Predict the structure.
Amino acid sequence: MHKTLFLTFILYLYKIARMKFKYLLLTLFLSSIVFSQQNQLWKGYFSYKEIVDVANGNNKVFAATENSLFYKDLILGDVSQVNSINGFKPEAISCIYHSSQHNITFAGNTNGLILAVKGNGDIVTKVDIIEEVPVPPNQKKVNHFYEFNDKLYISTDYGISVLNLQTLEFEITYFIGTAGEEIKVLQTTVFNNEIYAVTENIGIRKGNLNNPFLYDFSQWQTFDTGFWTGIVTFNNQIVAQNSNSRTYRYNGTSFVEILNTIQNANFIKATDDYIIITTPNHVFVLNTSLVQVAHITGIPDYSVTFSSSIIVNDNLFIGTEKDGVFSCAISNQSIFENITPNGPERNYVFRVKSAPNKLWAVYGSYTLSYNPIINDYGISYFQNETGWFTYPIDDLLGVKCFSDIGYNPNNPSEVYFSSYNSGLLKLEGDNSFTLFNHTNTGTNGLEQIPANSVTNIFDGSIRTNSPTFDKDGNLWLTSAFVTKGLKVLRSNGQWQSYELANILEQAQVVRFAPIAIDKNGTKWLPTRNDGVLAFNDDLNNKFIVIDDTNGLPTTIVQSIAIDNNNQVWMGTMQGLRIISSANRFLSENELTATNIIIQEGDLAQELFYQQPIIDIAVDGANRKWVSIADGGVFLVSPNGQQTIYRFDKLNSPLPSNNVLDIEINGETGEVYFASDKGLVSFLGTSTKPSEDLEDVFVYPNPVRPEYVGTIKISGLMDKCNVKITDIEGNLVFETTSAGGTIEWDGRAFGKHKVASGVYMVFVATEDGLETTVKKIMVIR
């Protein structure tokens, strides 16, 4: 009786588990489909130049940046990229490894995250180290992978974890300190079935892999007490790299020096035929007789710092910190090929600007307190026809730390780049640069930061920001730490500055976020500590200050946007505020900012309550894209009452939740997200409305069976009525355009998919004065 009940109970549990398993599989399957379909709306613009590590396997060379991979098939010559668009989302890659036997590429991260990319493109995310290993988060960095007998030995900052390569499950973790404590393990190898582990501070520890009690720290012994950085098994012997910048082999009783590497090594690696040792300025290659056969000290025409190297098929592949991956034959070390995929200079993109036929990007940045972060990155732009091109820093007249971009709408080949260090750089055409600074803009132009007791800044810098054109062709920009912080380069070439000392108590320390200009020519200036300044030079230089005494939750304002109805949207470090109409500036002398209250069920709450807002952008349908610090991006309706999308690292291809800049191509609707870990875009549908219906366009057309996205009708005027019928005149869809593009999901009023056939698109303007008709071919 009890046995029967027990078996019945077990059968019941089995059925429940089976149902749950089927549900899980279905959920994963559907999630995969949704993610796959969603990714068709996304594009990646990643850099592959800042190489962290390289690896070899299966006639391929693999290279990793901090947040992406690429690999080249040396037989076919193909180069493939793996990034967040594919679902590959690392935290910060520290090392990689490719298992030829299992055809899996592993990427270890500084926080213990491990990503496994299978040969079929599937990505497995392993968070076991992050969640289960009982050590502080800052001690979980992955330093090295070593494969032996279907197991992957993972060297970390706490010890060694072992992954079963057949099941991709963790088996055990070894804490190998002399008292069982966590210690940093830099690299492991196996020789004569003993595992050798190089530690940071207690020498080389070893243990016998046949020992079933190896999990007990007392079963490990100290092999050598020296200070070592790496170890490999090569040609039936142990070779190790010491912190004294020398390489040694073990002769059975002691270590014997074989090479002086001049600098401490980043990596020591071994193939069947070679040892490769990489330092910041040297790459050494030794053959099986431990004879040096290559010594690379530089790459012609590049000033490089080496990061990691490997050999595949007698070709040496060298990763660099800023210039990608170079290859040369071991037999000819004078001819190098750069195999790096085309892309921007780096993945940390600070500002982007969409101009006709070009997307501009700069990489200089400043902190929350507006301290410049000086680097040696130049200026890049992207063109669909040619890809990415970069003006290197050496060609930019000594200017560094580019903070923003502005182009002349009347002459898009005239582009301005503000520098948070050196002034304003102008580009005319393709290669003509002019630098504006305190030496050539007159007494009323750009000025160096004066030495004073308040700022304690004596570097002579000129910290300009956000060059923005008004409708009359005047270029406005701001300058930090000077009392005349608002500048303009008039269309006639004359400079003018505006004194703020009579407006702000601490004008000498004022700092500005990117400015916005409304339809009336009023300039809206968000500041670090002074709220928002509104200014109009056509109204007798009228100023109004909006701060925490009239509606702002804080005086730290990071972003400002003017929407299509001339409303002012202000993003602060503690939430969102709006001014209902910028026109109020014309007639009022005081402006009060208000919040937006939304209804969440039975609760009324403030939109983005106390959230630190980084940027706001307005699309063609007057919707607002809002980025939140470490919170991803929101798309809200024109009045902010509905959230249309929320994108973050978990549910979208965003490589980071810190989106530094949002830029929208008004013609195509493409929305660019510049983050601290890469540039991606979302193919939105809200484009600028057209002035007529001459260029209404339907795409894709025809709609083929394999297509899973929406059908778009672009080139519309605002508030057009769009009706779609079958060939017999039966209505299947109707909507009103907001902006220049609408979408149709290919269904009859959102229900069933329409059948194969020709469908008619009838478009009429709001007043009915203009109409057009298009056709769509649907093939099922």
Helices lie at 2-39, 128-132, 584-587.
